[in-house]
């Protein structure tokens, strides 16, 4: 490439040529995808004005050369559909210029005067430098401009440079744990805007991944009716953990506002200490009657709403099959189901020798059970042989980690790699398809 680094403002109105020298149009803007962390955002492509007075999107992977006088494409084939900006996209000239920013080291405040982009070793382009304009002072009659690395300034991540609606659109493509980590770093005002914009189901998923302190803070922001709706959408064990952190009168009011069918399993879990199998378990495992077929069992396992750990095993019980169930007969491992004919009955495959976990078993005993049997889910059965629920290895890990582990700083590059990559999905490839 003729230019290793170029400032976007200098690219405005540059002529765009195809590989054979045919003129295609002029550069109007550069599109980037801001991240939830401080790493430089990926450049997705160019907005190019055609001679027909229409703007199109050209993915950066199609760009062969960016020179001071012109941009050359690697192929003359471009998609002529009109440019339609997507929620996770930001135009540098149209939206980032004049954005207020703060230099992290000095605390000096200024605004974006320009952004530099450059190619990476993977053929992608990234926005790596920010030219910051500082206000005039008594000592300096003219405003000054200084160039900083992208990581050296704050205010240009997804939260700072985009509205709540666009931020929610970016969060839609991220895992709940990554959304929770990103949400915890937002200013209080923006955090509440995002919470207001999320639907109850999505907010419940995010709540389950938050630290206890963040959960309590945001729950106190919600009105009691919506707080009850979010608790209903959460897994009963996670809802019980959250309510267990609240004062008794507040937890009682929220339980009364929940639908009886949703609050009952939560109430049952609250009877147990938090560090026992009864307090750790989920009361909604996959339960089947003995006359269920392998095909039925596999259909239940395939349900995308069932967590992977719970999908590893089905539990065979006498009626009623809702917890607390009738007599517990045993379990069937998912691998067994995959090897069996669809018409076979699960009753003929039951493992009735796997030791059961009592609801009063402590965290240490539960941990040893998982280490001994190399499983990710186990049956919690009372003295009368009723299946009460299932405890999963992820719940055990949550309680084995130091208290408040979610409150620790998650802003390192490695820990946010997944969130950053998901927030900057390869839109150029999608547009190419």
UniProtKB/TrEMBL annotation:
The keyword Cytoplasm does not apply. PROSITE patterns: CBS. This is CBS domain-containing protein. The keyword Secreted does not apply. Residues 281-348, 349-408 form the CBS domain. Keywords: CBS domain. SUPFAM superfamilies: CBS-domain pair, MgtE N-terminal domain-like, PRC-barrel domain. InterPro entries: CBS_dom, CBS_dom_sf, Mg_transptr_MgtE_intracell_dom, MgtE_N_sf, MgtE_transporter, PRC_barrel-like_sf, SH3_actinomycetes. It holds the Pfam family SH3_actinomycetes.
């Amino acid at each position: 490439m003729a230019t290793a680094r170029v400032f976007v403002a200098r690219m405005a109105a540059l002529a765009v040529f195809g590989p054979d020298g045919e003129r295609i149009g002029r550069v109007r803007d550069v599109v980037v995808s801001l991240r939830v962390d401080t790493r430089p955002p990926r450049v997705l492509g160019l907005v190019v004005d055609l001679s027909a007075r229409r703007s199109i999107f050209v993915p950066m992977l199609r760009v062969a050369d960016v020179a001071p006088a012109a941009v050359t494409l690697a192929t003359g084939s471009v998609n002529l559909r009109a440019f339609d900006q997507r929620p996770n996209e930001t135009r540098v000239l149209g939206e980032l210029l004049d954005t207020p920013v703060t230099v992290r080291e000095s605390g000096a405040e200024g605004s974006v005067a320009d952004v530099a982009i450059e190619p990476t070793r993977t053929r992608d382009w990234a926005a790596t430098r920010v030219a910051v304009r500082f206000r005039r002072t008594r000592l300096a009659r003219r405003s000054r401009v200084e160039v900083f690395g992208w990581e050296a300034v704050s205010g240009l991540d997804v939260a700072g440079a985009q509205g709540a609606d666009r931020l929610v659109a970016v969060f839609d493509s991220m895992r709940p744990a990554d959304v929770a980590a990103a949400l915890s770093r937002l200013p209080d005002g923006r955090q509440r805007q995002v919470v207001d914009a999320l639907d109850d189901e999505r907010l419940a998923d995010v709540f389950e991944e938050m630290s206890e302190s963040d959960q309590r803070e945001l729950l106190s922001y919600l009105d009691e009716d919506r707080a009850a709706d979010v608790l209903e959408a959460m897994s009963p064990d996670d809802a019980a953990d959250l309510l267990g952190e609240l004062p008794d009168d507040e937890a009682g009011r929220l339980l009364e506002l929940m639908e009886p069918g949703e609050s009952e399993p939560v109430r049952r879990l609250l009877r147990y200490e938090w560090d026992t199998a009864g307090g750790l378990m989920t009361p909604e495992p996959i339960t089947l009657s003995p006359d269920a077929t392998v095909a039925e069992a596999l259909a239940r396992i395939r349900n995308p709403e069932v967590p992977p750990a719970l999908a590893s095993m089905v539990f065979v019980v006498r009626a009623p099959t809702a917890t607390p169930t009738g007599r517990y007969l045993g379990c069937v491992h998912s691998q067994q189901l995959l090897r069996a004919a669809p018409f076979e009955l699960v009753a003929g495959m039951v493992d009735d020798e796997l030791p059961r976990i009592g609801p009063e078993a402590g965290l240490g005993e539960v941990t040893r059970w998982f280490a001994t049997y190399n499983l990710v889910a186990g049956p919690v059965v009372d003295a009368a042989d009723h299946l009460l629920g299932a405890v999963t290895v992820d719940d055990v890990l949550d309680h084995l980690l130091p208290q408040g582990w979610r409150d620790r700083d998650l802003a390192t590059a490695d820990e946010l790699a997944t969130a950053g990559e998901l927030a900057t999905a390869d839109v150029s490839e999608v547009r190419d398809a």
